[in-house]
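Consider the following input, taken from an annotated entry for Alpha/beta hydrolase (Actinoplanes sandaracinus).
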Amino acid sequence: MTLAHDSAGSGPAVLLLHSTVCDRRMWDPQVPALTAAGYQVVRCDLHGYGDSPVPSTSFDEAADVAGLLTGLGIARAAVIGSSGGGRVALDVAARWPERVTALALLCTALRGHEASPELSAFSDREDALIEAGDVDGATDLNVDLWLGPEADEDTRDAVRAMQRHVFAVQLAAEEEGEPVRVELDLTRITAPALLVSGAHDLPDFREIAVHLAKLLPHARHTELDWAGHLPSLERPDLMNPLLLDFLRESQGQSQG
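Applying the prediction step yields:
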């Protein structure tokens, strides 16, 4: 299935996979910095987000992401994933390790992770608000939880608009296909990996980052003392240099 996407710049490819609180617009602060540094930047809307509708039949998200790259003539790419987009990035990197040159995971989710009491309570509250028809309340709940103290009002408004659109797209779907689940072996991932967590995020995401940093063969974990769950939006002035340094370092490793 084709995913809504855009591409900018030229050079080594970088694929951006958004958080499930947002859509591909969350990367607006990163695209100019990446293209100016000499990269081709591809960003897509995952199924049920942004301009990509909810599939009515079963779908394989990672395969569709890999197929998008193939359709654009991109054999290999660095992948940057935020939260739920990080989970998809891990799927792609484990199933097609030869296609991923570097892997930056920002407060990534992980399939099979057992939710903390805090995360479970959030999910229950969100479900209750949606069932009660209070979509605005559910939207505000997400904005308040997922953005750290450094996020300004413009950023909060942008996340609010994206999250509200997510609910609109998903609630409008008459039928919803089931995602295909493929058994993964994350130790097949060969790309250098950067695991980022935020000190103001829920504990789940630091635990996942620590776990993955031990599991993946060429990985390191960086915790940002200023960050919540969406550091690329909260402080792009601090996040962009970190990502660019990692990409340059990884590019040198892949050529060495």
